[in-house]
Automatic annotation (TrEMBL):
Coiled coil: none annotated. This is Oxidoreductase. It comes from the Bacteria. The lineage of its organism: Bacteria, Bacillati, Actinomycetota, Actinomycetes, Micromonosporales. Residues 39-229 form the NADP-dependent oxidoreductase domain.
């Protein structure tokens, strides 16, 4: 089992010109060319690695994120860097912020076959974890036995197979995934889910995943920027939000989605910040309300 803990760096916000995050317009260069974002990603990866970050998260739908990370790894060959990617969404925005459709979701076998090939072409044997992207209880990925065999074959090659979840029924999706077996063995060994002070409903299911031996990775700990602007969390709301996730006994890795070196430095303060998440329990929203509000955020 892969052993990695602490804060990881996710490249969703910097691998493509458009993303859903409050305040992002001020974080990136006015000209969001491929070259400009490549330079930003390299800066962040260099800074993160120097500060002890060892888990790096990308996805097929994050524009050029896999390419940027692969180029950086070839340049530095950090053997202790752990790489996770995701398949299941196809990036369709063609490097535009104003695209009508930014990504298309499909959890079918054909999409897996295509995207694992694309990922391995870029990352090769540096791919450590491969998640199905944004699984919900309705996803065919939870019941497709042909797909399960494909994924088990990938696991046999040494890649940890997992899933990420989204939506108000994350807990149900996680529990269904934990029940999936291939030849009597659990298929999914890593779970990446949204957990934050506004949307903590997946917590009990994530604890079950952890107890079952899964690596648990927290995404969107700052609620797509909403918590970073919440002054009731104090002078460093971003660090408080991340520290609250790190304080969960089932959390192995909490992702920073920093888009600037300053944000990353501030985020990493969470590693030494004691936070009692229960003291912020009143911030929690009904899951349906939270996810409806997230769906209404604009790409910027």
């Amino acid at each position: 089992m892969i052993s990695v803990r602490g804060i990881g760096l996710g490249l969703a916000a910097v691998g493509r010109p458009g993303y859903i995050n409050l305040g992002r317009d001020a974080d990136l260069p006015a000209e969001r060319t491929v070259e400009a974002l490549r330079a930003r990603v390299f800066e962040l990866l260099d800074d993160a690695y120097a500060r002890g970050v060892r888990y790096f998260d990308v996805a097929r739908s994050y524009g050029r994120a896999e390419q940027f990370l692969a180029d950086w790894l070839r340049k530095h060959a950090h053997d202790d860097a752990v790489v996770g990617s995701k398949w299941g969404y196809t990036y369709t925005a063609e490097w535009r912020v104003d695209a009508e459709v930014h990504e298309v979701k499909d959890h079918g076998v054909a999409t897996f076959d295509r995207q694992i090939g694309e990922t391995q072409d870029l990352l090769g044997d540096r791919l450590d974890i491969y998640h199905i992207h944004s699984v919900t209880p309705e996803s065919p990925a939870l019941t497709d036995r042909v797909l399960h065999r494909r994924l088990a074959g990938l696991a046999a090659q040494g890649v940890v197979v997992g899933l990420s979840t989204s939506g108000p029924s994350q807990a149900a999706a996680i529990r269904e995934a934990l029940a999936v077996r291939v030849d009597g063995e659990p298929l999914f060994r890593s779970v990446q889910a949204t957990w934050n002070l506004l949307e903590p409903s997946a917590g009990p299911a994530l604890a079950e995943a952890h107890d079952a031996g899964c690596l648990v990775i927290v995404k969107e700990a700052m609620a797509n920027g909403r918590l970073a602007a919440l002054r009731s969390l104090g002078e460093a709301p971003d660090a408080v939000a991340l520290a609250a996730a790190l304080a969960q006994p089932w959390a192995n890795v909490v992702l920073s989605g920093a888009a600037t070196a300053g944000q990353l430095e501030s985020n990493l303060r969470a590693l030494t910040m004691p936070v009692d998440a229960e003291s912020f329990a009143e911030l929690a929203e009904p899951p349906g309300e939270y996810w409806a509000r997230r769906a209404g955020l604009a790409w910027s």
